[in-house]
């Protein structure tokens, strides 16, 4: 199973894609929301906390945050910048499509 399939499989069936997509519609605002401790960095842990706020818990939150973080960290520096968040909606939408089509 690929990491994308594993991440899609981890999405709960009741996941509110629209709610989370709305949160990522403004990258700067999303960055501020993700940067819980205001240190100017968004880590996997910050992303996991956001997923938990949207009902993704436990191992599912860990799997999804790891996959999404890897996809968003464009320069591979271990943190997410506001410009990296532009692609967040597309990643989530693709994962949900995989889950709904049964390819996850």
TrEMBL record:
Signal peptide: none
GO molecular function: calcium ion binding
Coiled coil: none
InterPro entries for this protein: EF-hand-dom_pair, EF_Hand_1_Ca_BS, EF_hand_dom
Chain ranges of the EF-hand domain: 29-57, 60-95
Key words, A-Z: Calcium
Pfam name, any one: EF-hand_5
Superkingdom, natural source: Eukaryota
Gene3D superfamilies on file: EF-hand
Protein name: EF-hand domain-containing protein
């Amino acid at each position: 199973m690929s990491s994308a399939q594993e991440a899609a499989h981890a999405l709960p069936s009741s996941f509110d894609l629209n709610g989370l997509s709305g949160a990522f519609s403004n990258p700067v605002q999303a960055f501020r929301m993700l940067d819980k401790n205001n240190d100017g960095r968004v880590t996997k842990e910050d992303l996991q906390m956001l997923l938990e706020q949207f009902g993704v818990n436990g191992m599912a939150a860990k799997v999804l945050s790891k996959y999404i973080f890897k996809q968003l960290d464009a320069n591979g520096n271990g943190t997410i910048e506001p410009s990296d968040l532009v692609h967040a909606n597309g990643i989530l939408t693709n994962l949900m499509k995989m889950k709904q089509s049964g390819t996850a």
